[in-house]
Amino acid sequence: MESLLRPVVMVVEIIVLMGVIGSLFLGVKLTALDFGMEEKYKRFLCWVFMIMGCLALVFFIAHLVTFYPRLST
Amino acid sequence: MNSLTRFWTSQEIYIMKVFLPIILGFLVLFIGLLVVSALAFWWRHYRLWHLGKAESRSDQGATRFKTLVAVTFGHVRFWKELYPGSMHFLIFWGAILIFLGKVVRLFSYPVGLTLPPQDIFKSASFVSEIGGILVIVGGFLAVYRRYILKPSRLETKPTNTLIYLWGVVLLLTGFFIKGYRMAVIGGEVPDWSCWAPFSFPLSRFFLILPTDALNELLVWHRVLIHALPAFLFFAYVFITRTPLQHFFLSPINIYFRNLRPKGVLLPIPNFEEAETFGVREISELTWKQLLDLEGCTNCGRCQDVCPAHLTGKPLSPRRMTQNLKEHLRREGPKLLATPVDQRKPEAIMEATVGEDELWACTACMACEEACPVYVEQVIRNMDLRRYLVLVETKYSSEVRLTLKNLEKSNNPWGAARGTRVEWAQGLGVKNITEVENPEYLFWVGCVGAFDARNQKVATSMVKILQASGIRFGILGNEEGCCGDPARRIGNEYLFQNTAEANIGILKGHGVKKILTICPHCFHTLKNEYPQFGGEFEVIHHVPFLAELISSGKLKLTKPIDKVITYHDSCYLGRANQIFEAPRKILNAIPGLKLVEMERHHQRSFCCGAGGGRMWMEEHIGTRINQMRTDMAIATHAEFIGTACPYCLTMLFDGIKEKGKTETMAAYDLSELVIQSM
């Protein structure tokens, strides 16, 4: 049971964490544009955030696989 | 009770020992940053609004406050559209409840509300839970509408998507944290199933984790995936231009709303000494007009009711306001950073507003009626026209001809002044100077005097007045245009000259009461002439006839066995709130059956002749009068009733253009009354 549940709760955790990261990155991008960053850098920023997002995803997966507590069931 | 105490105590010990200093440090830092962002937000907006010209909007504080409360908390102007109204109501009240619950939570620890959880704490928990559920339901409706239904009036930008995404994350993590908190104790938690109806069931899932792990998850989640994103979310709201700022800006706009009758234009102050007229650049708008731009929520209700937009003209009130808002945010900071004598502001026209867009406005005020936050569009458009007409002299050949006719002949057609009274020949109408103790001056208006179709209306009115034994007279050839076309076109100079001349004539004859058949004359004489010292009791013929009928002075006995639909004129209805009197008249006529069009009363649709459009061609899109006629045809009515000579002309033409002259006819109400007498 635990072997089935643990990956499931970790996936939920990752979805929430990526939601947070996605919101923050999009917020930073829109803030930068709002503060006068030229549109031509938008694509570059998107790529930077996509790469950072992927790195964050890899980190979260590795972190949770290693440190996520064992379930008590 | 013991388990509850243990629940909170165990968390408290854990946090106190390990993370409290870090958490407190972050709290202080982020709250500090948030306060700075909020202050910067208000300071930035305050300075932008003060770029505008002065305007007094501080009168009638009690009325303003009542409107603010009714519109903001009761959503009174939102319910005209049930779906978006309910959606906004749920999100708004959900957010308020979450905020209330959070405020109690924030101060609960120092005042000892949590050990054990006291009633107020549990109530706060319940309030935030319900708030969260309301926001989820409202948010779901909003997402479904914006991304699935996709109404054309909604403009979806990345920031809209971000708000939904961030909102979902904050709500979910908020519920998660509460669930973790309850799961930490491991066993049953009496009461909490009803105080936390959403989080409690969620907490039962978290029981699969051991207590230590839950404690750790709780702390990390609380800080990293809820508190930190929440602080950043508020910072984002304050420092960027997200539409969520309407949460603060729109209520201010509601408070400072226009309390005068709608559509009343203000004179240009110090006309003789002014160096420029109207609005060329953003700083020539008033501070309230600038606030309007910022208060606009981009909801698009105005666009959905704009006759120009719906008939394919290049005007969308929503887009124009949003473009001007962008203009303000682009130009405003530059202007503020430059000394006044060195400023070179960009012109609004062409850069932000197109000429066709501006001239398409019929000044019908449907946009203002629909706007939930009282954004005022018509006066701003007329201010822009004033600049085009008085400074740039940029207008179409039709407008040029109309203005020339008004200047030369004192009527828009250019008919000779001496022919104004020809319509009255043989009717026994006397000049006001020939009537002993006249009760009323009958102000015929240019359309009633010169337009063949509307001359019949003036004639009907004269016959009714004579039949009722009312002492009245006309000004004859002394009457001139009231000035409405000149003012709505933007020639304020011509309007002021016309108004002052008319006031002189009216006062010279000792006129006290004016009766008119034209809502445009009515609106101008009643609401705009007082700006120049012309205080008269002005009555439109519709309430006047309704009064004659209800007092028994007019007996309507002959039946008219027809089905009629009534077209509300913009300047009688929306501007002066006369909606029921015309319907009373129609219901008093035996045999006549009244049916309503799809858009009626406050939501009535313009005939296309307002805002000076009566004297302009419609080169772009379909004709507005045809669209209105289609609405009337859809009711299967045989008659269209109206109480405005402009509307009568437009609907008369619309019926002809639609090939419906065999089955349909347009009448002024006075014509129907005389038929029934």
Explain what the structure shows:
The complex is a heterodimer of chains A (73) and B (677). Chain A is mostly helical and 73 residues long. Chain A is built from 2 helices and no strands. Chain A has one domain. The model of chain A has no long low-confidence stretch (mean pLDDT 87). Chain B has 27 helices and 8 strands. In chain B, helix 26 links the parallel strand 7 (639-642) and strand 8. Helix content of chain B is 56%, strand content 4%. In chain B, helix 5 (158-183) packs across helix 7 (199-205) and helix 9 packs across helix 10 (287-295). Chain B has 677 residues and is mainly α. The longest helix of chain B is centred in the first third of the chain and has 48 residues, at 2-49. Chains A and B meet through helix 1 of A and helix 5 and helix 8 of B.
Tally of discrete structural domains of chain B: 4
- Number of beta-strand segments of chain B: 8
Measured by residues with Cβ under 8 Å of the partner chain's Cβ, the largest interface is: A-B, 21 and 29 residues
The DSSP helix count of chain A reads: 2
Alpha plus pi helix count of chain B: 27
Helical content of chain B (DSSP H or I, runs of 4+): 55-70%
Mean pLDDT of chain B: 90
Tally of individual domains of chain A? 1
Strand content of chain B: under 5%
In short:
With 73 residues, chain A is an all-alpha fold. Chain A has helices at 2-34, 42-67. Chain B contains 27 helices and eight strands.
